[in-house]
Amino acid sequence: MKLRGLYAITDSQLLAGKFLPYVEAALEGGVTLLQYRDKSQDEARRLREAEALAELCARYKTHLIINDDAELAARLGVGVHLGQTDGPLTPARTLLGREAIIGSTCHAQLDLAEQAAREGASYVAFGRFFNSVTKPGVPAADSALLEQARTRLKLPICAIGGINLDNAAPLIAHGVDLLAVIHGLFGADSTQEVTRRARAFNALFASA
Ligand SMILES: Cc1ncc(COP(=O)(O)OP(=O)(O)O)c(N)n1
Ligand SMILES: Cc1nc(C(=O)O)sc1CCOP(=O)(O)O
Ligand SMILES: [Mg+2]
């Protein structure tokens, strides 16, 4: 499976009151992976929203990924993204099966990415590349890391953290396959602008 393009990630605060219309607007513009990221403990709302996203993603033929929660991913038959403290990859792979998309946060550390590859990750995520209003204070990654990762890893490489339409192109030029974006996509004033941004991110890949 070819994983390349825009990786849209939801944010429950940013999308409050406009969750599904904004997500659908992004899907309309073209999304390779959609991650449901909700850091609350509201299990009922998480299930309801994840189910709604699963339906929407099926309609748009987009892959849904659940952040942090392999059990919820298994319940819906979709993928999962796991950070370094979200539980090990190997049991998640066993739970979700060979075909499932499983992503791993590797910060700015190649050794973590190589370990994730050995443990069955489908892609590795490095970040943050720019200052992030969504998640401030995480350690920085740079383009030299991407160059090294490209030569040492066969897996798709995802970049995250403060990515927007003005700073994304050099990441693609340095070998990034997936641009993971929250604010640079969903911090828009209208659904039309979300769709325009999604299309513009895809155009960056098309012209690379
Ligand atoms: C694509 C992608 N990359 C990195 C992360 C961050 O995961 P994590 O470090 O577990 O932090 P939280 O997102 O859970 O706060 C991600 N979610 N997606
Ligand atoms: C969830 C997350 N993880 C990061 C990491 O570096 O691991 S940065 C980040 C936030 C991404 O949101 P935005 O596109 O708004 O900066
Ligand atoms: Mg996490």
Brief summary of the model shown:
This protein has 208 residues and is of the alpha/beta class.
Structural class: alpha/beta
Strand order in the largest sheet:
1-2-3-4-5-6-7-8
The count of DSSP E runs of length 2 or more, i.e. the number of strands, is 8
Q: From the alpha-carbon coordinates, what is the Rg to the nearest angstrom?
A: 16 Å
Helix content: 40-55%
Bound molecules: ligand LCLJCK34, the ligand Cc1nc(C(=O)O)sc1CCOP(=O)(O)O, magnesium ion
Beta percentage is: 15-25%
Shape: globular
* Largest sheet descriptor: 8 strands, parallel, barrel
H/E topology pattern: EHEHEHEHEHEHEHEHH
What does this structure look like?
The chain has 208 residues and is of the alpha/beta class. The chain is built from nine helices and eight strands. It has helices at residues 19-29, 43-60, 70-76, 89-96, 110-118, 143-152, 169-173, 183-186, 191-206, and strands at 5-9, 33-36, 63-67, 79-82, 102-105, 123-127, 157-160, 178-181. Strands 1-2-3-4-5-6-7-8 form an eight-stranded parallel beta barrel, surrounded by seven helices. Helix 1 (19-29) runs parallel beside helix 2 (43-60) and helix 1 packs parallel to helix 9. The longest helix is centred in the N-terminal third of the chain and has 18 residues, at 43-60. The chain is globular, with a radius of gyration of 16 Å. The two termini are 20 Å apart. The chain binds ligand LCLJCK34, ligand 3NM and magnesium ion. Residues 7, 35, 37, 67-68, 81, 83, 86, 103, 105, 125, 127, 158, 160, 180 line the site of the ligand Cc1ncc(COP(=O)(O)OP(=O)(O)O)c(N)n1. The site of magnesium ion (MG) has 4 residues, from loops.
